[in-house]
Amino acid sequence: MPEDPSLKAYQIIFQQESLYTPFLVSVITTALGTLVGLFVATIGAYVLIQKDMPGVKIISYLLMFTMIFNGGLVPTYLVVRDVGLLNSLWSIIFTLSMNVYNLVLMRNFFEQIPESLFEAADIDGCSPIGIFIKIVLPLSKPALASIGLFFAVAAWSEYFHYVLYITDTSLYNFQVKLRSLVLDDQSMPAAQAAGVSAKTIQNAAIIVAIIPFMFIYPFCQKYFISGVTMGAVKE
Predict the structure, then answer these.
(1) Enclosing domain of residue 149
(2) Choosing a second label site near 2 at 20 to 30 A (CA), which of 15, 73, 84, 172?
(3) Looking at residue 70, which CATH number applies to its domain?
């Protein structure tokens, strides 16, 4: 058991005003990244389950191909640069939302929905978009919760894309600033004044970074397990 436990390391971190704006940036990018990612994944998955659509198998194979072979770092950077997204949070949001793995998971979940529901809605005169909004999405809460959690964790934990695409330090997120705070010894004067070691500051920073999802995950747990496992096994 630790002797003389103290919360001074957390006080030092929370007293760093330079972390307030990055924390807000992380919240915004996580929320928008999750919403955009779910929009792309659900729309893409809904298109891929349309068996009568010409070329749907070819599109599926091409998407699966990108899970094994992708363009690489330099072509991706050139695309982000040429569309004018450098030094913009949208460069982070869009690159994280294009996740084929999550799209495939969503497609597998949609395929478990009985086809008779689609046929009944079609007979009643419901449009394809109406079927998607009124039938598919309400039945997909477990998948939306689990895959949304995947997107949220990826967006919250993102570090590399910020360093790669953004040079404006005012747009850096919580993770980048925490790293600077710990590794660049920005917190050392305050730590020495409080009698706290550098290793303690580092450990406290790690805990602070994972606290939000420690509170979010219990609310998503009942959907998370069923969302991940459903669609994983075909009979």
Answers:
(1) 8-229
(2) 15
(3) 1.10.3720.10
Q: Domain for residue 141, yes or no? A: yes
The angle subtended at Cα 56 by Cα 52 and Cα 59, nearest 5°, is 170
For 225, the token pair is 């397990």
Burial 155-176, CB ≥16 within 10 A → b, else e: bbebeebbebbbeeeebbbbbb
Three-state secondary-structure class, residue 44 = helix
Gyration radius of the chain's alpha carbons: 22
Q: Is 41 exposed, middle or buried (0-12, 13-18, 19+ CB in 10 A)?
A: buried
CA distances from 75 to 21, 30, 61, 71, 72 (A): 31, 25, 21, 6, 6
What pLDDT tens digit does each residue of the chain (235 aa) get?
Answer: 777 777 888 888 888 777 889 989 999 999 999 999 999 999 999 999 988 888 888 998 998 898 888 888 899 899 999 999 999 999 999 998 988 989 988 998 888 888 888 888 888 888 889 989 988 988 888 888 888 988 998 999 898 999 899 988 889 998 888 887 777 665 566 666 667 777 777 788 888 888 888 888 777 776 666 555 554 544 4
What is the distance between the alpha carbons of residues 180 and 127, in angstroms, rounded to a whole number? 52
26 vs 23: CA distance, rounded Å: 5
Q: Look at residue 196 and tell me if it is in a domain.
A: yes
